[in-house]
Structures are given as structure tokens and as C-alpha cells.
Amino acid sequence: MNKLFFCVGTVLLTTFSMNESLLAAPAELSSALQGVLDTRDQRTLIQGHINGLEAVDSVLVLSHGKTDTLAVHNGDFEYEYLDSEAGTVHFFSYARQLSDGSFRAFRMTPITVMMIPGKTVKLEGDFDRYKISGNAFYDEYNTLAETLDANQLQMTKTNEEYARLRQSNQLTEEKHKALQAQFLQAAEAQQRFMEDYVSQHLNSPVSVYLLMMYRPEFGEKYFTRITPEVQNGYMKELYGEVKRHYEDVIAKREASKLVQDGMPAPNFTLKDINGKDFSLSSLKGKYVVLDFWGSWCGWCIKGFPEMKKMYAQYKDRLEVVGIDCNDPEAKWKQTVEKHELQWTNVINDPKGNNVAQLYSVQGFPTKFIISPEGKIVKKVVGEDPAFYESINQLMQQSAK
Fold it and tell me: Where are its TM segments located (predicted)?
């Protein structure tokens, strides 16, 4: 890994008829060359330097759900963003043993860069504190960065202190309350600062970026008020993400009123693992567990062994319906096969029949227990022993 950057040469072939003057060639060649230079200038690049990396190192790049590894030489790197729409790129440092023998942990908090097609930005600093410059977007954003970073740093330090005290068994109730108050103070200051800015800059792409990155509660009041010019400008795709997020929040809040204990479980139809339609109503007369999960959810996967034991014990009176969320179809099928999930398996359809929204699912795993009469008995969020206790009690009662 001796070189970081690679230059791709372009060969220009110009043909001439016999009666054309060769004196015309330089002008044509110049025109063609200018076209290549213009194309080069329109590339979307990040040119940067990250302090604290090894002489020969690498970083993990996440962009539009795809990952890549980028070579870094003495902290210097260049990355080309190939998407035609504006978007974000996230840089993480790998866990590895350093030249001095120490170990570097994987960085869970990335460097995040907003990319605008045709624009080059420069990044300098380290993973804890960095500056991005080079276009009008960052000229504006950098006027906010100091306050945003200061509030975020306060929240991060408070979390780190909480974790340190807890790990060393020094976390008293008094210290817990004090740290909680510090965190809330910084979080509320961050919210106020962002809301003040967004409310006064509804014509700014930076406001869309703030709503997308932080997804603050106050965004519900403003996302529809972003000006049409910004909604349909280079932030169009990202604004679409913001709009879908807040519409989903609103829809789930309304749906939550209809999925309370004792209420009829909303019926739905989704495709099962064989591509056939499955409807919840087909299981009326049996207890049903709806398990909302995803292959990307660690706690969902950890819960499968206990779920399989429960299913083996009660499958004559109870059916489990696993509803996969936010997975590609191939990954869903692969995970079902790998973990040998023998119950009914369907995949959510967020663009059609969004059952996760219908049931106001806001965390994973989420399980609903439904009675033979089709009513909601209990909702359990997370991998909680209370779920299995409820199942055991219901099965004992139904056996009498």
C-alpha cells in the first residue's frame, strides 16, 4: 500500500478525413481535453487528513447503506462520492493493534460528511473534533458547528462518566441524578439551539440536514414548512427521508391508540417465505405471537433460542408469526434458514402494507400476544423475561 491516490489516464482519439487540415487538430484536441477537465472538476470528492492514524492505515466508509475500506497514508486520504444525489458519508476507524503495541478500539461515533454532487470538500482534524470546508453548505453549517459540537461533547462526556462510575461500582443515586441532570441540560440546550435556527431558516439546506441527522421532536412542526425550493433542490432525496421519518412518527402515534391491550388486533396480509399471501385472520382461534424483528438486531437474534423452546412446547395451541423488518428479501430468507425458524415467517412491506407502522412498532424486538378471539393481550418491547412469563401463564390457564 505504497500509494494512496490513483490517476486514471484518458486517451483521446481524433479522426480526420484526408482533406481536413492537421492544423485543426490542436483546437479539436483542446476542446476534447477541456471536456475531460470539466468532467474532472464535476467529481464529488472528499480530500482530508485525519490525525492519529498510522503511517499506513485504513478507515471504514459507509455511504447509502454500502460499506467500503479506504486506504489512508500518514492520515491523508481522498474519497470520491459517486451518487448523483446529495447524501452523507460516514467514516469509522477500524479496531487494530498499533505500531506501539497498543490497541485502538472501533469508533462507534463516525466522522459524517454532507456531500453535494459536483462539489469538493476538505476535512481536517481527528475523530473527536474536525472541520469540513469547501462549499456554501459548510460555510453556513460551520457557523453552527461550535455550539452543536460543544453540546454534543457535554452529552458524550456525561455518558462516559456514567459508564465509568457504573463499571467501577461507584455510581451512587446522588451521582446518577447529577449526571442525568447534566445530560438533560445539554440535550435541551441542543434542541433549543436547533429549533431556533430551523424556525428562522426554513429556506436553508442546513435546516434539512439538522432535521435528518438529529431527528428532533420539534421537526414535526417544521418539516412541511421547508420551502419548495429547498425541498426540490439538491437536498431533495434527503428531504424525502426527513418527510418519511416524521410522517412515520405521526402515523405510529395515531396507530398506538388502536393497539392497546384488549383491543382487536389489526388484520394484515403480507407475503410469506414462499411468496404466498398470509393473513393474520387465518389464525383466529389460536393464541398468536407477532414477533417484529430484523437480522441486523442483535437482541432479536439472541432471543431466537428461547423463542424456539417456547414454540416447541406450545405449538399445538400457539402460533408465532415472525415479521421481518428493514431487511432485503435475500437476507431475510437466509437468516430464517440459518436459525431454523419453523414458525410462520413474513416480511414487512413499508411501501405497501406497513405492518410495523400499523402496530406502532418503535423498537426491536417487539412482540404482541394475541388471544384466540383476535384481541391484543400484551405488548412487550425488547428481549424481556416478562414475555415468556405471560405466555406460560396463558398456556396454563387455557389448559384448564
Answer: none
